[in-house]
Q: What sequence folds into this?
């Protein structure tokens, strides 16, 4: 799996925190510094989040990005669905289609079933976690402040 999901979760958690601190718009440069990645990478992920209706963007010196709806109305599964292709798997399986090993072919089939079950549990947990809860958990680890991110 690539890092798009973790970058997207970071972006939305950060935007929720900024909103709770009274700031509306956040630049891709600021987000890039927070994530420790180039703003171009951030803008690619922002584009996906925008196309899925999770954020709003505004150009110009006072522009940036902000949540498109309240943090409690966005869940980590929404984020995952916005940046990870629907047919992708948490685990990459190599091409075993032409294997000459009868056992190897069946091992992969069973392993795919187990991974599919695990992914269903994973998505269920993401569905249960809102960006508001995610952001609150992050801020609570700071030990310095606990802004309200229910907006």
A:
């Amino acid at each position: 799996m690539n890092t798009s999901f973790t970058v997207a979760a970071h972006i939305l958690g950060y935007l929720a925190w900024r909103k709770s601190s009274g700031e509306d718009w956040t630049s891709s440069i600021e987000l890039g510094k927070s994530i420790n990645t180039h703003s171009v990478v951030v803008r690619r992920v922002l584009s996906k989040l925008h196309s899925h209706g999770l954020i709003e963007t505004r150009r110009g010196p006072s522009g940036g990005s902000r949540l498109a709806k309240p943090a409690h109305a966005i869940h980590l599964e929404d984020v995952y669905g916005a940046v990870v292709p629907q047919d992708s798997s948490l685990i990459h399986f190599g091409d075993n289609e032409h294997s000459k090993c009868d056992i190897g072919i069946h091992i992969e089939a069973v392993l795919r079933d187990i991974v599919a079950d695990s992914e269903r549990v994973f998505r269920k947990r993401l569905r249960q976690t809102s960006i508001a809860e995610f952001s609150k958990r992050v801020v609570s680890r700071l030990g310095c402040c606990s802004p309200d991110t229910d907006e």
Notes: The beta strands are 55-58, 64-67. Helices lie at 4-20, 28-35, 39-51, 76-83, 102-128, 131-142.
